[in-house]
Amino acid sequence: MKPTIGQLLAGPGIALALGAPALAHIEYYDLNQGRQIRDLTAAGKALVGNDLPISNPAYWTATYQTPMSSGETWRNPVGSYASGTWGYTVHVITLDSSSWTDGLRRNAQGGANLLGDTHKLAFANFHLAQASRVSITLTDDQVGTGYGINPSFSLYSGLAVYQGHDGVSVDPLNPRAATAPFAKLQDPKDTGAVVDSQGITSPYRNTVTNSGDYFGQFDALGGWSVGNAAGNWSAVKYVTSVTGRFNPSGDWSGTANSNSLLNYLLPPGDYVIAFGGNAQNPSYATGRSADATSPYGAVTNLGGTLTFKAVAVPAPEPSTFALAAVGLVLTAAAARRRNARAA
Question: E-strand spans in the chain?
Fold first, then answer.
């Protein structure tokens, strides 16, 4: 069950078990390669077919991907992807003070500005070749100032397409009839029944009876889908989120500077981390994140550090499975004997 907003904000530094920098379409800090990838080349798009990041290490080259740098600083603290244990730290120069907060705003009965603006978030991706324990820490640059943006993130399985953003024609934000009276429609991708090329179902969004317009497509506590101008489309599935407690006084003082998810076991596959600030109450009523009211000034003045580490979990030996099977048989036999005596 998803946590309530009250549970989400119940205490500081709580990990709930339950991206291109910000201000751009979805690009990725690739945590397998330790570099920023803006898009796929023509060769990469032909290979993947739907403009998703490439999972095969053989194609992690400039022939298939378009790298970029916006001033981020990368560091490789440990290991290598090939070894099954590796980690990267990237300092991101642009974070938004309440971009993650935006993804908390939803109201099944209707209302304005539901879901978050994907342009405001930063995104990282990684691929696991085998089951691994993953640790993620997000820290802002405000340590020692008395302020903090409560840096928060959500983890999803699957991948979103490069250059995806809110409201493209392949996945409209607020679909309406093309002719007067322009009544709201339920686009097929809003029905919760459309499956993408990864086998992930697009989540349901009530775009017909919602009394206001959806402002974005990012959901901090649920799956979401996104498309790009080229017509590529994909969905991601919610895994978990991490945040702390925002300052209820609203003066930004004392808000958390760092939050972590440690040794979280994940199966093989592709994953996305969407990260930003959670320094405002989710009821914040404007259509944008809170950079305009932040004591830090313009959103581009905010920075943070994302630290990632993955440690592969060795597969059990065949003998382990055999012993487990024997144990189950013996347990079942003992239970039958107890039941027989009781009868």
Answer: 15-16, 28-30, 35-40, 65-68, 73-80, 85-92, 122-128, 132-140, 152-157, 224-227, 233-242, 258-266, 269-276, 304-312
Burial class from Cβ neighbours inside 10 Å (0-12, 13-18, 19+) for residue 167 reads middle
Round to whole Å and give the CA distance between 273 and 267. 16
Condensed to tens digits (0 to 9), the pLDDT of residues 85-123 reads: 999 999 998 888 888 988 887 665 555 557 888 998 999
Binning pLDDT at 50, 70 and 90, where does residue 302 land? confident
Q: What is the DSSP letter of 312?
A: E
DSSP string, 44-88: HHHHHSS-PPP--GGG-STTTEEEE-SS-EEEEEEEEGGGTEEEE
What are the residue boundaries of the structural domains of the chain, listed by start? 5-312, 317-343
Tokens 């935006």, located at residue: 102
Most trustworthy range by pLDDT among 65-74, 150-159, 301-310:
150-159
Tell me whether strands 224-227 and 132-140 are parallel, antiparallel or unpaired: unpaired
Q: Are 42 and 48 in contact (CB under 8 A)?
A: no
